């Protein structure tokens, strides 16, 4: 039975542009109802010029907090009273928690990835991993992996203008977390093969494999895959990319990004409420929404 809205009902939400396509409202409102939290979750299209006022509204309206998506993840940082370690290292946030008017910025994408790996019995702590891409999702994963105790991370990205910008950030993350992080050119096939030969996990954090590139793989040769190299792809639509199909063909564990989506939301939910999200109940809802 659904909770009734009362005079004490709290509000959480998503600030993005556009925001209406998000799965977050059904995820969080269902979780609020399931756990007896008197709150609702709504999506808000927030124009960049109104972000500061919209963040102040979290205090004024005594909201639980909000999630942030593009284009606000970096700009919102300057409006926070405090940042989590990962958010400070990355310079971006996707979750704001309102603690009696004090706004704390968090980034839960990396937490979502690490929790998904754990759920799939992939143990990477103290080991070496390889990640393809160095954008927002990749940086969140790299940072959380380093904080959690992954020993070494080989990062491969195309050698463009962004490559030069990300290098010092990765160096800063490595220094603070004592994780060995090296940036390489994605076009260097030998370097990639060498890295994968000593890795215990391959992560694809590029968009290669999703529409319209569903017939492409982010690696040049599937021969670098092997049975004891789990593969995690941040893409969740399609549910099985060409990379994941190739990994499964070798007998390796192959995991898509749905769990990352689910568990990053669960991390935000816990930050707001102190309660565990009922992920077994939420996962089929997400799967159905993605199919629509």
TrEMBL record:
UniProt keyword Phosphoprotein, yes or no: no
UniProt entry tagged with the keyword DNA-binding: no
Catalytic class of the enzyme: oxidoreductase
Domain SDH C-terminal: 257-282
GO molecular function terms listed in the Swiss-Prot or TrEMBL record: NADP binding; quinate 3-dehydrogenase (NAD+) activity; shikimate 3-dehydrogenase (NADP+) activity
Pathway as given in its UniProt record: Metabolic intermediate biosynthesis; chorismate biosynthesis; chorismate from D-erythrose 4-phosphate and phosphoenolpyruvate: step 4/7; Aromatic compound metabolism; 3,4-dihydroxybenzoate biosynthesis; 3-dehydroquinate from D-quinate (NAD(+) route)
Catalytic activity: shikimate + NADP(+) = 3-dehydroshikimate + NADPH + H(+); L-quinate + NAD(+) = 3-dehydroquinate + NADH + H(+); shikimate + NAD(+) = 3-dehydroshikimate + NADH + H(+)
Residues holding shikimate: 22-24, 69, 94, 109, 236, 264
GO biological process: amino acid biosynthetic process; aromatic amino acid family biosynthetic process; chorismate biosynthetic process; shikimate metabolic process
Active site: 73 (proton acceptor)
Domain Shikimate dehydrogenase substrate binding N-terminal: 15-96
Pfam families per the UniProt record, alphabetical: SDH_C, Shikimate_dh_N
Record: residues binding NADP(+): 133-137, 234, 257
Subunit structure: Homodimer.
Function comment: Involved in the biosynthesis of the chorismate, which leads to the biosynthesis of aromatic amino acids. Catalyzes the reversible NADPH linked reduction of 3-dehydroshikimate (DHSA) to yield shikimate (SA).
NCBIfam families: aroE
Record-given protein name: Shikimate dehydrogenase (NADP(+))
Source organism: Enterococcus avium ATCC 14025
């Amino acid at each position: 039975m659904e909770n009734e809205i009362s005079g004490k009902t709290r509000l959480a939400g998503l600030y993005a542009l556009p925001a209406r396509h998000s799965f977050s409202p059904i995820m969080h409102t269902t979780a609020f109802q399931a756990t007896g939290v008197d709150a609702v979750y709504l999506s808000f299209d927030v124009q960049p010029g109104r972000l500061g006022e919209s963040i102040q509204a979290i205090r004024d309206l005594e909201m639980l907090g909000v999630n942030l998506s593009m284009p606000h993840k970096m700009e919102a940082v300057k409006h926070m009273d405090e940042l989590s370690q990962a958010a400070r290292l990355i310079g971006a946030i996707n979750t704001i928690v309102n603690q009696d008017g004090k706004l704390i910025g968090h980034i839960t994408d990396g937490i979502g990835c690490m929790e998904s790996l754990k759920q799939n019995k992939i143990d990477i702590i103290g080991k070496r991993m390889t990640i393809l891409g160095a954008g927002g999702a990749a940086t969140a994963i790299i940072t959380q992996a380093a904080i959690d105790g992954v020993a070494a991370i080989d990062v491969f990205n195309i050698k463009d203008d962004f490559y030069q910008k990300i290098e010092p950030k990765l160096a800063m993350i490595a220094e603070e977390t004592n994780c060995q992080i090296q940036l390489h050119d994605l076009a260097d096939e030998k370097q990639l093969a060498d890295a994968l030969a000593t890795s215990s996990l391959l992560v694809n954090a590029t968009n290669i494999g999703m529409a319209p590139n569903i017939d492409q793989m982010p690696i040049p040769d599937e021969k670098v895959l092997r049975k004891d190299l789990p593969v995690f792809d941040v893409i969740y639509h399609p549910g099985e990319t060409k990379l994941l199909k190739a990994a499964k063909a070798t007998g390796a564990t192959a995991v898509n990004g749905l769990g990352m989506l689910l568990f990053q939301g669960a991390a935000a939910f816990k930050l707001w409420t102190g309660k565990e999200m009922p992920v077994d109940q939420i996962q089929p809802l997400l799967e159905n929404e993605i199919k629509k």
